[in-house]
């Protein structure tokens, strides 16, 4: 992992957070809204280290950051966006027998 | 919950897995009962009656026994595959493409992720909080539990037809064994019955008198009807024993046609 792989971030006045990883800009609008991802070769000059509430994991192949209930996994090719919080709905138990109607 | 997904059941998955196991036990019990019923009708003691005269039955007995034993082994083998515990870890599930694909279709199990692989990513990454990871751990537990059910279902689906086939082979084997081990009783040889003596009178020809005169005690003893008993011989050549007469010697001989003839009398002469 080189210094170039390390994500840089900027906190905007509107409380949104922008993070630059692997040639992409990830903007977390806040309020739990889904992050927006755009191509961006270089971070701006005022970008700095990640805020403490932005978690990250960096390897030579992928960079993962999470913030505001969202996780972004960026590789050289693909970007994946996932929720960090699991939603568990009741009644996930199944059976072939004794199924109740209705 | 997607329409194609099974609906929630008040029972738990452990109970569903146990139902498959119970089903396997019921099948084995039925097979065992049928086998016991068939075996009970087999007279094993008749095995000793088998000999080289019944090569077909000997072959059927051996083949039937082998088939029945082989079927029993096959049934037990398949049943054990269903009854043994299912051991699965989340990594086993995520690394099994067939299982993972089946679970990916059950979106309600995935806690909002799109695939089992995504759940693994969320569990493995250091970029989420411990609280969030604990939530995904519960999702992973649900996935593993359901995967165990799917694996048990697949094991049962793959086992019940071979189980049925093995049971049929067992029945055929027991039937072949029963047929081979019980040869029909051979027709008993008729008891030897000595022919009852028949009272006859022997009339000798000249050749007969010449041949038997000395044996009967002289020429006078060979003349006229000679009282005798027919004690066997063949039709036309009876074996006769002359009865004692004064001055004559009792003799036994086969009365050939050239020597004379024996005519039956109504009743045995009085002593």
Biggest sheet of chain A: strands, sense, closure?
4 strands, antiparallel
Helix count from the secondary structure assignment of chain B:
8
Instruction: Report helical residue fraction of chain B.
Output: 40-55%
Strand order of the largest sheet of chain A: 1-2-3-4
- Terminus-to-terminus distance of chain B: 117 Å
Q: What distance separates the N and C termini of chain A?
A: 56 Å
Approximate strand percentage of chain A:
35-45%
Strand content of chain B: 5-15%
The residue-averaged pLDDT of chain B reads 82
Subunit arrangement of the protein: heterodimer
Question: Helical stretch count of chain A?
Answer: 0
Structural class of chain A: mainly beta
Placed side by side, the strands forming the largest sheet of chain B appear as: 4-3-2-1-5
Order of helices and strands of chain A: EEEEEEEE
Q: How much is the radius of gyration of chain B in Å?
A: 46 Å
- Low-confidence runs of chain A (pLDDT<50, min 5 residues)? 92-102
Order of helices and strands of chain B: HHHHHHEHHEEEE
Which residues of chain B form runs of ≥5 with pLDDT under 50? 6-10
Count of beta strands of chain A: 8
Describe this protein's structure.
The complex is a heterodimer of chains A (102) and B (271). Chain A is mainly beta. Chain A has strands spanning 8-11, 17-21, 24-28, 36-39, 55-58, 63-67, 70-74, 79-83. Chain A is globular and about 40 Å long. By secondary structure, chain B is of the alpha+beta class. Chain B contains 8 helices and 5 strands; from the N terminus they run H-H-H-H-H-H-E-H-H-E-E-E-E. The longest helix of chain B is centred in the middle third of the chain and has 52 residues, at 130-181. In chain B, 30% of the residues are buried. The model of chain B is unreliable at 6-10 (pLDDT under 50). At the A-B interface, strand 5, strand 6 and strand 8 of A face helix 1, helix 5 and helix 6 of B.
